[in-house]
Amino acid sequence: xxxxxxxxxxHSAVLSMDFSTAIVSIYSPDPQSFLARTAxxxxxxxxxxxxVIHVRVGFRPKLPEINPRNTLFSAxxxxxxxxxxxxGAAGEIHPAVAPEGDDISVTKHRASAFTGTDLDMILRANxxxxxxxxxxxxSGVVLTVRHAADADYRLVVxxxxxxxxxxxxxxxxxxxxxxxxxxxxxASEFLEGLKSIKPASEP
Amino acid sequence: xxxxxxxxxxHSAVLSMDFSTAIVSIYSPDPQSFLARTAxxxxxxxxxxxxVIHVRVGFRPKLPEINPRNTLFSAxxxxxxxxxxxxGAAGEIHPAVAPEGDDISVTKHRASAFTGTDLDMILRANxxxxxxxxxxxxSGVVLTVRHAADADYRLVVxxxxxxxxxxxxxxxxxxxxxxxxxxxxxASEFLEGLKSIKPASEP
Amino acid sequence: xxxxxxxxxxHSAVLSMDFSTAIVSIYSPDPQSFLARTAxxxxxxxxxxxxVIHVRVGFRPKLPEINPRNTLFSAxxxxxxxxxxxxGAAGEIHPAVAPEGDDISVTKHRASAFTGTDLDMILRANxxxxxxxxxxxxSGVVLTVRHAADADYRLVVxxxxxxxxxxxxxxxxxxxxxxxxxxxxxASEFLEGLKSIKPASEP
Amino acid sequence: xxxxxxxxxxHSAVLSMDFSTAIVSIYSPDPQSFLARTAxxxxxxxxxxxxVIHVRVGFRPKLPEINPRNTLFSAxxxxxxxxxxxxGAAGEIHPAVAPEGDDISVTKHRASAFTGTDLDMILRANxxxxxxxxxxxxSGVVLTVRHAADADYRLVVxxxxxxxxxxxxxxxxxxxxxxxxxxxxxASEFLEGLKSIKPASEP
Lengths: 203, 203, 203, 203
Hints:
- The structure is a homotetramer.
- By secondary structure, the first copy, chain A, is of the alpha/beta class.
- Chain A has helices at residues 21-27, 31-47, 71-77, 80-84, 88-91, 119-125, 138-150, 167-177, 187-195; strands spanning 12-17, 51-57, 104-108, 130-135, 154-158, 183-185.
């Protein structure tokens, strides 16, 4: 299949979300090929002149960002064991898909990459209007996808760079929910589409 | 089943979303019982002292709120026929579940009830920390649910006051995605739970 | 003096703030010339193809938008007399500078035109990156100016379309605080500058 | 004069803004007494059980947060010399008023402490409704004060822990603009007022 990818690298960013070492090991059934695929998307995006942004969860000591009313995140605040998933090497982005060169890193404290972060500020500052998104878990990515749709970004979701413990939820989101707001592609379709796009800096 | 509903009416609000006459007629397979059920939730919420907030989509003339990059909403901007769904009687909230008494109405121009509205301002101004949500379509409600979770509201979703054209999407969201952030109840469970809660003004 | 106005009408909007009949009568020492001057700015902006947006304060019945902790606005909520300034003809924009044609109206419930409104959504949807601002009182305009600066809009303030009860505060803001973020012009300088700009639709 | 300070330490936070070593040395005419006064406010706030939050400007390498349209901040992005004010020891908070113990640090990239930061998230997560603010320059503090007023925080400004290169601007803001939204106190009035407040943890 020929994929026509109508994106302008100078106004596009890849959002690689929640690829910390701990999260990858928990959510991905086949980490090696999952990481290799994602690494190759990041590499080609960079060489095409697309901005690459990494988003991960992180906290200050004693997690002052967390509200006791927030079920999901107060479970982390109340458990030293849960917190260890976000600290030290476990909490860092897996070396296979880690930030390189001019990549930008954003730390979030909630599910959406936009909530309480400077992500929207950075995107606007760089005149970015198109996002290529993927991450773990798929059921977490849905919020950022829709948050971004409401903020008027053009959206591409790379489905096989998303992973979820529940295969049915993954399929439902990727096949039925995401397509209402986003172009949903496989990594190979995206890479194929990138080939026909010249980086802005080339003649 | 006995439902223990741990909510304080003085700090709770019902969010009834997108019950316009046109949307109800498109999305609900059995509008009569769907509306009767929802009306009864609204009525009991009011008499329990819970704030009731109605959210619907609406636009200024010529839809200056819509960005051409927003696929979902520019489809409305570009089609007079689509716009008619949000105008006049079709766009008003269905009389069976319409605002009454001190109910509050919020007009939105995007999928989330929070995006570009004064909803969060109103909730904070009234010290509301718990939301009881439902609406059409279920796949639209998911964004507001997660937006609200990220904003640290306690959440109850009333599943049979949600409706979606795709039964599989409805089931996946209601059974698997919503429960990660919210207590998911049927209308009858919610009404049963309300009985054990005295309104704040009673002795 | 020759004014070089480096604005592109297709990406610019005038923000005319808080010109309700009651507010004009309270704050302006010489309403007739003040309104005539402002009307002429609005008229020339429209005929140059600049979007015109009017912002005024307004509330739902019983003011559910107001938090008792907000000193400024709870004073309004607690006083029927204060509320009358925002209701009926008194609360409407003065007829001399009222919305015309495709002008856009925004209702706010706080000091800044951005807080809890769809103003930023509308500006982004229309690819507007430059704001020409003025309003009453000058000490209220300062917040929207700085809010807009933080949101990366290019800014022009028209100083003699601002008014404040305290002449010293007006002078301090207009002469010393606004120039740090905005180009500060008189109405006649702005109108002079507009002459050299052709509307986008002209050949 | 006896000051009645109606604050509850468990729901209050001190915001100490822009006390980096470089900014202090540029803006304060008498750094030694200025820093001693501020340090004593921080110390007493901590021992009264008030949360202390430090806010400073900082950037990622190459300043991707900055929009070329933002006059104030693109001047920094375009000047290596300006950037040095925010890097290394110069950009760190002055040792005399630096974070201690459980103090929280927030990094901003715009004028307001709220723009593009997790400050509001942290304040809400900790049920904080009252802010005691001060910082450099006074003309920068005004935005955070009004931003916070619009977000319904109760406000106290400590005037002699603010400094501005222009004495007239400082006086105008502190004497005439801040009092419209905030209680304006001297450091000694604040410290005097604190004495009558028992920390929440005491019997």
